[in-house]
From TrEMBL:
Residues 11-79 form the HTH gntR-type domain. This is GntR family transcriptional regulator. Gene3D superfamilies: Chorismate lyase-like (3.40.1410.10), Winged helix-like DNA-binding domain superfamily/Winged helix DNA-binding domain (1.10.10.10). The keyword Cell membrane does not apply. GO terms for molecular function: DNA binding; DNA-binding transcription factor activity. The lineage of its organism: Bacteria, Bacillati, Bacillota, Clostridia, Eubacteriales. Keywords: DNA-binding, Transcription, Transcription regulation. One of its GO terms (biological process) is negative regulation of DNA-templated transcription. It comes from Anaerofilum hominis.
Length: 244
């Protein structure tokens, strides 16, 4: 019967249990954030050893499907989203392609002054005016990343007056100012979540994040956006196609 183990020896028991739990996670029997049955429960349910249970759970953990938290138990991870490194990604489009419903909360839309580091990246003067647009992005209602976009105010002065939880910043720049991104250069870091970031993303302070700094260039090959993005480490992975 389905969800029963075959003790004939044709397939190792831990791999059979892995298959059962994998299917249950995939089919939504166990949802993201939900606890799996305890080791003792699985031992009693399937009449197997603790070593067999742990081997099956280790396989699921290696796949990034589950995680263990001391004092809490073993729980299902959020589905991870692939982020490719070979082209400029637009969050809403990528989420829709993968079957998610994307949404946005505006955290800030304000005039700030360029630091030395940001000014250097954008080829402007230190202290020049920028507009900082900070957004919290969701997929299926789950907070996935925080984006901090710095734009040169002189090139797009009306940005500050708009709510980009209701409209696309990228489309607004294209339609209002003919600013279209041609290419981008980015740096990738592993960082720990600060208290503020953790609070917005629904994770614990100190949890791992993928942090990306990106400079986007217009069709005239001029740098016009400095973007910082903090991705949840339990929800994203990066891929790149390499040639020998």
């Amino acid at each position: 019967m389905e969800n029963e183990l075959d003790f004939s020896g044709r397939t190792q028991l831990y791999f059979q249990l892995y298959d059962i739990l994998y299917k249950d996670i995939r089919d939504g029997v166990y949802k993201p954030g939900q606890l799996l049955p305890t080791e003792n429960t699985l031992i009693e349910q399937y009449h197997i050893s603790r070593i067999t249970v742990r081997k099956a759970l280790d396989l699921l953990m290696n796949d990034g499907l589950i995680a263990k938290r001391r004092g809490y138990g073993t729980f299902v991870q959020n589905r991870k989203v692939e982020q490719t490194l070979t082209r400029v990604q637009h969050f809403a489009n990528e989420m829709e392609k993968r079957g998610y419903v994307s949404s946005v909360t505006m955290l800030a839309n304000e005039v700030v002054y360029a630091s030395k580091a940001v000014a250097g990246e954008l080829h402007i003067g230190e202290g020049d005016e920028l507009v900082r647009v900070e957004r919290l992005r969701y997929a299926d209602g789950v907070p996935m990343c925080i984006e901090n976009s710095y734009l040169i105010r002189a090139r797009c002065p009306d940005v500050q007056r708009h709510d980009f939880s209701k409209q696309s910043l990228r489309k607004f720049l294209e339609e209002r100012y003919d600013i279209v991104w041609k290419r981008a250069r980015q740096k990738i870091y592993a960082v720990a979540a600060t208290g503020r970031t953790a609070n917005y993303l629904g994770i614990k302070e100190g949890d791992p994040l993928i942090y990306i700094e990106r400079v986007s260039y217009t069709r005239d090959d001029e740098p016009a956006e400095y973007l910082q993005t903090w991705y949840r480490g339990d929800s994203y992975y990066l891929t790149a196609e390499l040639q020998a």
